[in-house]
Write a structure and sequence with these properties.
single chain, mainly alpha, 10 helices, 74% helix, 0% strand, globular, disordered N terminus
Length: 298
């Protein structure tokens, strides 16, 4: 790597650019992988064992192709809030570390940064996440039980009117708990894997290093997050419940009544979503940052 490239890579980005990069990266990834999110959520609310193939074919045969993009508006709003915050905060914390310390942060420090970023992003993004879960699973309900939200704004308004504005944050504790696990698994693992692959396998900084690191990050994230993801989905999809159960209670009930492996129900569509989403998000984030450093940063 040339001295100029190293200098560009070490430059910190302005906070606004860090957050803008984060949001745009998440939106790019979501537009590609949203259909897998629909399939994953449909599988997770089912109390029966159902395959990805059966879920996919059910939507294809009984609904319309456009239903694979149910809840896209909520998903994009979620990325604009959740990913913008979590990845923006993480990028900013890393830049602050580089400005104040000469050594690279260890995995514990990276995990702490990721946990702070994930918890912050999850709280801000919970309303959009709740709308996303409900909109992507609505087609599976009997016609008379469907909510039929027109879009994410309609979902926000109706939840606030029909259930109370506080219910826009239903499952926020579960969502934040999941986000801490997800972001440690995803962000910290990605950063640490980049260092290891670069130093141990001599893969230089660039597109391939970003892809390899994101693939490892996506796999770890999928496995670690699934029990929390299923619990969050079940809590947010509940109807007419004044006090939703805790994440731990939902996880225990699933394991007891459906078997321990039910906590990883929908693993394939989850990885089919998280894997590509992680790769696209991180590659876009790195490329957007490099473009800014190369062409706009003085």
């Amino acid at each position: 790597m040339s001295d100029q490239s190293k200098e560009n890579k070490s430059k910190s980005l302005p906070p606004f650019i860090n957050f803008l990069n984060a949001g745009l990266s998440g939106i790019c990834a979501t537009c590609v992988v949203h259909p897998t999110d629909v399939v994953k959520n449909r599988m997770q609310i089912s109390t029966q064992t159902i395959s990805i193939r059966k879920t996919f074919l059910h939507i294809l045969r009984n609904e319309r192709i456009i239903n694979f993009y149910d809840g896209l508006s909520a998903s994009l709003v979620r990325q604009s809030t959740y990913t913008t915050t979590r990845l923006g905060v993480y990028n900013q914390l890393q830049d602050s570390w580089r400005e104040n310390y000469t050594s690279k942060p260890n995995f514990f420090i990276l995990s702490t940064m990721a946990a702070i970023a994930g918890g912050s992003g999850a709280f801000i993004g919970t309303p959009a996440d709740l709308a996303l879960v409900r909109m992507t699973t609505d087609g599976r309900l009997p016609p008379d039980q469907r909510r039929n939200y027109k879009n994410v704004v309609d979902a926000f308004i109706r939840v606030a009117k029909e259930e109370g504005i506080i219910n826009l944050w239903r499952g926020s504790v579960a969502t934040m708990g999941r986000a801490v696990i997800v972001n440690i698994s995803q962000l910290a693992t990605y950063s640490q894997t980049k260092v290891l692959i670069n130093s141990e396998l001599n893969v230089s900084e660039g597109f391939l290093l970003h892809v390899y690191s994101a693939m490892v990050s996506g796999l770890v994230t999928s496995f670690n997050s699934m029990p929390f993801d299923i619990a969050k989905t079940r809590i947010q999809n509940l109807k007419d419940v004044k006090k939703p159960p805790t994440m731990l209670k939902v996880i225990i009930n699933i394991a007891k009544n459906e078997g321990i492996m039910a906590l990883w129900k929908g693993f394939v569509p989850t990885y089919c979503r998280i894997g590509p989403h992680t790769i696209i998000t991180f590659v876009c984030n790195e490329q957007f940052a490099n473009i800014y450093r190369t062409h706009f940063s003085k």
